[in-house]
Amino acid sequence: MITHHCYTTEPWRLCESELDLDVLAQSESLFALSNGHIGWRGNLDEGEPHGLPGCYLGGFHEVHPLPYAEAGYGYPESGQTVVNVTDGKIIRLLVEDEPFDLRYGHLARHERVLDFRTGVLSRTLEWTSPAGCTVRIASRRLVSFVQRAVAAIEYRVEPVGGPVTVALQSELVANEPLPSPADDPRVAAVLDTPLCPEEDFARDTRLRLVHRTGHSGLRVGVAADHLVEGPEDTVRAAESEADVSRLVVTATLRPGSPLRLVKFVAYGWSAQRSLPAIRDQVEGAVAAARSTGWDGLLAQQREHLGHFWQCADVEVDGDATVQQAVRFALFHVLQAAARAERRAVPAKGLTGTGYDGHCFWDTESYVLRVLTHTAPQTVAPILGWRHDTLPAALERAAQLGLSGAAFPWRTITGAECSAYWPAGTAAFHINADIAEAVLRYAAATGDDGFERGQGLELLVQTARLWHGLGHRDADGVFHIDGVTGPDEYSAVARDNLYTNLMARKNLRAAARAALRHPERARELGVGPEETGAWRDAAERIAVHRDETLGVHEQSAGFTRFERWDFEATSPEQYPLMLHFPYFDLYRKQVVKQADLVWAMLTCPEAFTAEEKARNFAYYEPITARDSSLSACGQAVLAAETGHLRLAWDYTWEAALMDLANLEHNTRDGLHIASLAGTWIALVLGFGGMRQYEPGPSDDSADDTSDAEGASDAAGTGGLGFAPRLPDALSRLAFTVLVRGRTLHVEVTEDTARYSLRVGEQLEVVHHGEKFTLTADEPVERPVPPPPRPADPGRPPGREPGSSVPGSDG
Amino acid sequence: MITHHCYTTEPWRLCESELDLDVLAQSESLFALSNGHIGWRGNLDEGEPHGLPGCYLGGFHEVHPLPYAEAGYGYPESGQTVVNVTDGKIIRLLVEDEPFDLRYGHLARHERVLDFRTGVLSRTLEWTSPAGCTVRIASRRLVSFVQRAVAAIEYRVEPVGGPVTVALQSELVANEPLPSPADDPRVAAVLDTPLCPEEDFARDTRLRLVHRTGHSGLRVGVAADHLVEGPEDTVRAAESEADVSRLVVTATLRPGSPLRLVKFVAYGWSAQRSLPAIRDQVEGAVAAARSTGWDGLLAQQREHLGHFWQCADVEVDGDATVQQAVRFALFHVLQAAARAERRAVPAKGLTGTGYDGHCFWDTESYVLRVLTHTAPQTVAPILGWRHDTLPAALERAAQLGLSGAAFPWRTITGAECSAYWPAGTAAFHINADIAEAVLRYAAATGDDGFERGQGLELLVQTARLWHGLGHRDADGVFHIDGVTGPDEYSAVARDNLYTNLMARKNLRAAARAALRHPERARELGVGPEETGAWRDAAERIAVHRDETLGVHEQSAGFTRFERWDFEATSPEQYPLMLHFPYFDLYRKQVVKQADLVWAMLTCPEAFTAEEKARNFAYYEPITARDSSLSACGQAVLAAETGHLRLAWDYTWEAALMDLANLEHNTRDGLHIASLAGTWIALVLGFGGMRQYEPGPSDDSADDTSDAEGASDAAGTGGLGFAPRLPDALSRLAFTVLVRGRTLHVEVTEDTARYSLRVGEQLEVVHHGEKFTLTADEPVERPVPPPPRPADPGRPPGREPGSSVPGSDG
To answer: Which family, according to UniProt (chains A, B) (predicted)?
Structure first.
């Protein structure tokens, strides 16, 4: 997309210089605005043409039956799907009674700009109607980071040449017809007109609609108010029906005398609150927004983003494309999570309906991995959402005959919605992924209250799951059988190494945390016997190696499977799951996405450097990279093992997933995890940042002053760096937040410079050397030359960048 | 059911002495009549009350979409379901304008008898209407084995006490309302009124309806003609509408002067033939039946069954229940297959709609195993049906990226209908099961023409599947990964031993058969290189043993899985798949049904006696027996390993599956494979009959005079016996057909007597000793005492007979 001729490369903005309807749907995702609570796709103000109209609210969904031709015990019966709520974006324009529609007349100019520092989407255009009237339109739009319920639009229209009579229709529209109803007729029936009207209202410049979903019983209210500035003869009229509420403004405009409309929109929804309560909630929010005013909202937005960029910016000298892409990525990651608060962060954020708006392990393993070190205040509320869903996870575990919590593979509310258990229920690793996010957040922030509260409970209930899920063999080795790791081309396997190592981390962390918070642990029924059993299981967990090949096995026996015949697979047959049956994928050596490689990222202390190098070289040629989650992990391990050029190519791929529409589905929404992966590739890859787990020696029962605990006054946060740049870059600089400190890291070809911008002191590890950094004394260290291993090669046709025009690493 | 007080134990009949509506649905299955082409459930003549009205035609089905909440490559999109076709059984009666309905009035007597030697279902009753009129009714019903398209009913009504005016309505009824529509609304929509009327006709005593299915486009015609005998004032009138064609006979009857109606019904269906062609077909068939007459049909039926019993009867002295049950079983197995000809034999035969009327491996592995030695003329046409579906199997294999043929796990037409691939597509063993049936039939009959024709092609295309499905490891061992064996609680496993041994047999047999028929093999593109590759793969196929435990592994690593916690499983939690998720079943040591044990039955030469004993003892306590296919195989191996009492208990269970309604679903149709299993348990279990595969030495390329080939003049058919009786039996006698000979085997506690009733000579093996039997010289041999191994035990609550009242072995 960024390679599309309409787009230009700029460091702080995404700029579209003309409109190409062929890529309209993708552009709606790229230009989506969100604060994590409200999501507005980048639809045109006038509503049409569109790829997919979309307004979403975090957690707002409809339910529908999940069909099975052959049902089984424990299959979820009910699915959940994000709903396109009442559209508050729409401002239609009539020019002398002709509707402004880009598909007709002549478009002399059309530009859109998304500015990552102002958080505003701007649009300017000049259009001549079929009848020959020319107007200039300028609109700006924001979804407020500060006022969670509020979005706003400034719309300005002005004639060119001579006077023109215009009518602006600023609307709230419910139940917009969508271009692609669901395949399943029952699902389509539920989602066709999902909102049942409860109340509509229009008076003066104020509009309001309240609806309720038919099956999930959620109530949504939307209110709008307007400022109108125009010539003296400007006429306003408001009207309302069940599914549309409308302010009509008519005026005769002259060149130099525009009509300006500011629209304040507020959303609210609830499963419990009454119609009057929702009504008052949105009216209150819209009144507050109007009182802040358009300029006030702009200022709040700029200030909020200013703080964010101060702590989060990544400077990439040497590649303007990736420089732009990583800021685009961080902006959208922030948008997905900023005010999500106690709601799920969907895989697509609130930018589209892909994956039905479901949340997966992407949230904890990718998105929170970035935010923990760039916007940590967003993390606890999102983990708080997981904690809120603990009752459902406990119930699910009980249904499955397991102890503790079994969090859902995909969900909006916390109930499992995965209809294919080998890649859903069996992907138990999500529980350890959640635990790791807890652990990471607690270690990076020292948020003791969180750890003692929700954190400990999440760690304990997931540890219980692992302890009950595994079993001991005759030799006492602890096995976890029948699970699916990140690689979805190898389901229901024995001792998936990623799962086992993450379970080990989970078990150890739960035991350590219980020791730090003995009273709270007792409340949760955790005693020394249980923590002892967890530690014991952790220490005896199975780790399979193929001694002949000298590599770890992704799962027991994996390296003895037949190798996928990549040579006979044509480039058009990727992604493989669309062209080959699961049974064939599962029984062969072919990896959809980083799995063992991802384990080497998340559990670095479990592997020696040599093992990492050998493992990476073995798995690289059998990894199809059929998931957008894969490239960033491969980038990190490629960088660590010295394949710097390859790491750079993978970084490109992660960075351009949506900007270049690499998987041809950006129209359905952005790949938020891959966007997060851009930061991961740069900071964990070329910055070599790792958060190390305390070793088993730190697990002893008398270790009450655990260095990794929340009581960690020295403040290492367990962070180490091993920076190394690819040839393409002359400099990489980034900031990470840890334990209240702000650490700035600047890497050039031969030197790394560490400075503490906020905080008194911090222990830092550079390529294995530990030193203490203090406030006013930046430290420079040389960057050792990397090893130069041989390129292991990729499956034919799966070179990184092979589908990325212009990648020149 | 047989333990229900309404049923009595008789050697040659199933007798019901009174009517209990609580078991009406089950009785409809037990009393079902079929010739394999037409199936009539044992519904009451008057149509109501009913459990499930049912008239089925072999192969006649409707199609419907298969829903998936998450679809995958290669998932079948279209399902097939047996359709209740036009009901030709119905004869309603009005007694003085009150409908005869057993639920009203008073039923003084009601008896039904299914006679296994006459093939006739008889019913006699005496009923007093609510208004006080008493009538006696006697009806008889048959579905002709000789006239494939024909069924017939004789109906007689006579007043008791005084004169009564009656009206008989003999009908053809299409689209009968069914009590249980499908769960899925789309399937229900398709099946609610599956037949679209094309033509209806009624004249004199003749009725006819022609319909067509809405989606599969199959046309079905039904015609009826009647003989009416009654008093002089008897009036007849025929009328017809789209979905009902009716002959009404009214008469005033006096005691001693009955009204008698004989109804001849003929069915025909086709996907291709025109309306006039179908019309003429059924009219011709009904005219032929009328010309044969009721007595003629009775005589034909008796004669056909006489021949069958001469070759198939099993005498069980010492247990009257099992004596009755095995004849009931053989009768229904014959009914399911007799005239199936080039159509599938469904798991339920044509006795109900269970499993949607689909055919599974049951056909080849269970049903044909019996018929090959008792009614071999039925076998080639059924294997011919499989051969007819070869194009679909080749196409399916290609879709899955495989060579050769991949036959469907469940189907009516030959297209895969399994919507859950781990227990469908992955159950590749069905291909070897088909090959084994080919092999068994050719060896037992010497039908050289069949082997050279359809047989060779089936062997070749299945061998190709195995060769392509497996792969060599670095040591040259041939592995088949990612497949599901008979045990559906262990899916997608590596080197399932049953599958591997059966694939080996398949590969070897294909190579041998290609050698015997070189010209035909060349036509199929088979050369020495390919047969060499098959033999080589066969010789190097993986066989996994757990050396510590000293047993074979059901699949690689199976014995290292966690053992299912049987002690914590309550009896109500069986069958386990209704109470536990697949993921948990798959990763633990729990066996749904005989798998390795079944391998020891089908591939006896692959195990030593000691291995069989150890394997049986290991797998017995972890076998849940949650499939009706399991007990008979366990019976056979229990008998072989000396657990004779246990073998007898399992024989009971197989025998009483439907008669005692052990799985509580006999209402959906009979378990034809378990019925076949009764014979398997007796003849292979206590008779110890085995068909041995030629050893690898017989595979050498110069072995052109292969003793097992169709040119086998000595006529062993590879048959051996190792008879041994349980304490419960004083004598077991059975007949097996082999190579045109009729061998009679009679076993008592200490002696086995072999006599050749038809044929000149036959080689027989008795407990390892080979001898030649000649026409007029029966041979007696002593029965060696069995080993007396310790009882390995079963899962708690899963003792055989625990749900079989009255089992006293």
So the answer is: Belongs to the glycosyl hydrolase 65 family.
